């Protein structure tokens, strides 16, 4: 009986068959259990002789079940490993690849172009104080130009949420305690405060560009509440408008990779430059693969051509030099500010500013950015 049982256990092909054998032998009604029960009706002498024999038999059946169970589990595991094996020689599926965003790409291009002209890259905080963003740029509290900036203000510490922002005007430079009671904080509305920070930190002469994010409470097809500018600033002795025009021409020819870029300088107004100059660039319609396309280049006054407003600039206002601690009798300079998103749209033929900030990989891919 034992030999038959051990053979059946060893031959069990799966967990269920093995369990059936266990019940047949060791279960309540099993034959080994029945043998054990007979011990109760034996004389002490008989029990002494039969007890160890029956216990040994029970142990060998239980041991056989355990070892068969181990074998079955091992076989199951091996089968699973064999079926789940990875073929490492197969080509990997293409993973989606990220790319440099056009805005970052343009900022890199600008840094490179201006580095060739001796400009360093400067940065400043996006959370700026009123003094650097406005006052030191010759926009005192009552200046109407402030209203044009649609500024995001932070509520003054301890003040009521909607207290009039002018109650906390930045009429003096913040002294160390930048978020103190006299300093109204805001999201910078342009990169021009980096002009002030650079002059204060490094004095003159100076040749910097300052790329970065700026914020205005404005949103439609051509405006997003956050956008990007690059500021340019040159301070030296004897700087004049001719330097500004040459620098912008050289930069735009390199950026748009065309020698026929023509600029038109128009008188304009910014509180921090005097004189101020609005710069237009000439465009023309060309036939590209049967489609008419507007490209930059050529004299905007020629027939079929036109002018596009591109950037603001001018000679640094003497008052701004004074705010930044420079002597206007010794130092002159020019400054300009240009929208980076705008430059990217013009260079890469993109037409919706808002798409820049949607993070849609298909849009980027359409314009040749990334896979
Ligand atoms: N800061 C101006 C703006 O955001 C641009 C500008 C910069 C104009 C420097 C003149 C000189 O509109």
From TrEMBL:
Q: Name one Pfam family in it.
A: tRNA-synt_2d
According to UniProt, the reaction catalysed is: tRNA(Phe) + L-phenylalanine + ATP = L-phenylalanyl-tRNA(Phe) + AMP + diphosphate + H(+)
CDD domains, per the entry: PheRS_alpha_core
One of the protein's GO biological processes: phenylalanyl-tRNA aminoacylation
Annotated InterPro entries = aa-tRNA-synth_II, aa-tRNA-synth_II/BPL/LPL, Phe-tRNA-synth_IIc_asu, Phe-tRNA_ligase_II_N, Phe_tRNA_ligase_alpha1_bac, Phenylalanyl-tRNA_Synthase, tRNA-bd_arm
**EC class of this enzyme?**
ligase
- Quote the subcellular location field of this record: Cytoplasm
Q: How does it assemble?
A: Tetramer of two alpha and two beta subunits.
Q: Which domain of life is it from?
A: Bacteria
Q: Name one GO cellular component term.
A: cytoplasm
Which keywords describe this protein according to UniProt? Aminoacyl-tRNA synthetase, ATP-binding, Cytoplasm, Ligase, Magnesium, Metal-binding, Nucleotide-binding, Protein biosynthesis
> In which broad location class does this protein mainly occur, judging by the first location in its UniProt entry?
cytoplasm
Q: Tell me the residue numbers annotated for binding Mg(2+).
A: 274
Q: What does the record's cofactor remark say about binding?
A: Binds 2 magnesium ions per tetramer.
Q: What is its EC number?
A: 6.1.1.20
What is the recorded name of this protein? Phenylalanine--tRNA ligase alpha subunit
Q: Does the keyword Membrane apply?
A: no
Q: Which organism is it from?
A: Tsuneonella aeria
Aminoacyl-transfer RNA synthetases class-II family profile domain span: 104-346
Q: Which PROSITE patterns match?
A: AA_TRNA_LIGASE_II
């Amino acid at each position: 009986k034992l030999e038959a049982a051990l053979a059946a256990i060893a031959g069990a092909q799966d967990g269920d068959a093995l369990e059936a054998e266990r019940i047949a032998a060791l279960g309540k009604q099993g034959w080994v259990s029945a043998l054990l029960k007979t011990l109760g009706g034996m004389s002490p002498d008989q029990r002494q002789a039969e007890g160890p024999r029956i216990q040994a038999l029970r142990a060998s059946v239980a041991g056989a079940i355990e070892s068969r169970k181990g074998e079955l589990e091992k076989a199951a595991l091996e089968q699973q490993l064999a079926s789940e094996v990875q073929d490492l020689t197969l080509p990997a599926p293409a993973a989606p690849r990220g790319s440099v965003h056009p805005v970052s790409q343009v900022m890199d291009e600008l840094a490179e172009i201006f580095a060739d002209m001796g400009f360093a890259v400067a940065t400043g905080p996006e959370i700026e104080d009123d003094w650097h963003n406005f006052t030191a740029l010759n926009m005192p509290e009552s200046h109407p130009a402030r209203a044009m900036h649609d500024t995001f203000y932070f509520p003054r510490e301890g003040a009521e949420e909607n207290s009039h922002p002018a109650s906390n005007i930045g009429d003096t430079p913040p002294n160390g305690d930048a978020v103190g009671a006299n300093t109204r904080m805001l999201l910078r509305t342009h990169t021009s405060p980096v002009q002030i920070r650079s002059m204060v930190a490094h004095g003159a002469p100076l040749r910097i560009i300052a790329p970065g994010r700026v914020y205005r409470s404005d949103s439609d097809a051509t405006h997003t509440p956050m956008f990007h500018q690059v500021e340019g600033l040159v301070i030296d002795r004897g700087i004049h408008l001719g330097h500004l025009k040459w620098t912008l021409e050289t930069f735009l020819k390199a950026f748009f990779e065309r020698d026929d870029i023509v600029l038109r300088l128009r008188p304009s107004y910014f509180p921090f430059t005097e004189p101020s100059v609005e710069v237009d660039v000439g465009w023309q319609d060309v036939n590209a693969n049967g489609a008419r396309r507007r490209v930059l280049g050529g004299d905007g006054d020629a027939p079929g051509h036109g002018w596009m407003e591109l950037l603001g600039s001018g000679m640094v206002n003497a008052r701004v030099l004074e705010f930044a601690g420079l002597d206007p009798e010794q130092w002159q300079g020019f400054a300009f500010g240009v929208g980076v998103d705008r430059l990217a749209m013009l260079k890469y033929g993109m037409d919706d500013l808002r798409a820049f900030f949607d993070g849609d990989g298909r849009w980027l891919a359409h314009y040749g950015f990334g896979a």
